[in-house]
Amino acid sequence: MTTDAGTVTKTTPVTVPDRAGTSLGSRLASGVSGGIVRVFLLLVGLFWLVPTIGLLLSSLRRPEDMSASGWWKVFSEPSQLTVDSYQKLLENGDITNSLLNTVLITVPATLLVVVIGSLAGYAFAWMEFPGRDWWFLGTVGLLVVPVQVALIPIAELFGKIGIFGTVFGVVLFHVGFGLPFAVFLLRNFFAEIPRELLEAARLDGAGELRLFVRVVMPLGGPAIASLGIFQFLWVWNDMLVALVFSDSGSQPITVALQTQVRQFGNNIDVLAPGAFISMVIPLAVFFAFQEQFVSGVMAGAVK
Question: Is 246 helix (H, G, I), strand (E, B) or coil?
């Protein structure tokens, strides 16, 4: 371009986006706003919550109402809602004892796996001892052993030593099968801790136990919380192991509800509240520690 003074100036061409060269998927992805995606995900979440909501409303209805119509009837007749089923549940000794047994099984099995797995994971990550790598490979190899393969041999072993059919036997089985994954997860997480941080703590006079408690455990909090949630949910919802290794005095809530269905097929006024309680407790635990769970899952993903 030439001006009146005779100088030549250069104009910068305007770049026009080549929409023809853009793929259809890219155009659709850019055209969908975040609000629409959030609404869609919210609807999907509500859809998956329908069975839980239905179970809750069913547990708040009388048996005759449940026999006459579906749980959605409460929206037109709210007077059907009552807590009589929960009162009857508390009077059912089998259900209440099984709920207590579930707590006695789940809490020790979770704590023992977390504590032993943390100690072993730290040892495999930062302590030197003969055959460390081979021991770790052997532990990881136990992950491929199916639970079903070990049921009969371990049941025979527990019967010989007198712990078959007890809460301790169920806890011991869950601890044994939960430790390989715990060691594998925590060892890999602890190995990412900077060596300089540990060496600085050792120079300050910290021993291995103090180093583990004061440095490693706080840094490994997200991974430990994730492991605890996984183990808690696995043990709480388990029925196969409890069905084999527990008796009428040590059965958890999952086995007790299955027994109620088999013996009293129309005992829905006890089954519905019992099933909802057995489901809502692990949900509450998960939502209480969801931030730590997400942090543990994402640990190491972002440098």
Answer: strand
Cβ atoms of 84 and 218 closer than 8 Å: no
Instruction: Centre a 10 Å sphere on the Cβ of residue 292 and count the other Cβ atoms it contains.
Output: 17
- Which stretches of the chain drop beneath a pLDDT of 50? 5, 14, 16, 19, 21, 300-303
pTM, whole model, 2 decimals? 0.76
Residue 115 half-sphere exposure toward CB, CA atoms < 13 A: 7
Amino acid at 134: W
Instruction: Return the pLDDT at 69.
Output: 78
pLDDT at 178: 92
What are the DSSP calls for 68-91, one per residue? HS-GGGGGT-GGG--SHHHHHHHT
Is the distance from CB of 278 to CB of 254 less than 8 angstroms?
A: yes
Q: Angle formed by the axes of helices 221-237 and 268-288, to 10°?
A: 170
The pLDDT, as a whole number, for residue 301 is 46
Looking at residue 232, what is its pLDDT? 92
Any idea which residue has 């011991």 for tokens?
A: 172
Q: Read off the amino acid at residue 42.
A: L
Position 154, amino acid? I
The pair of structure tokens assigned to 61 is 């209805």
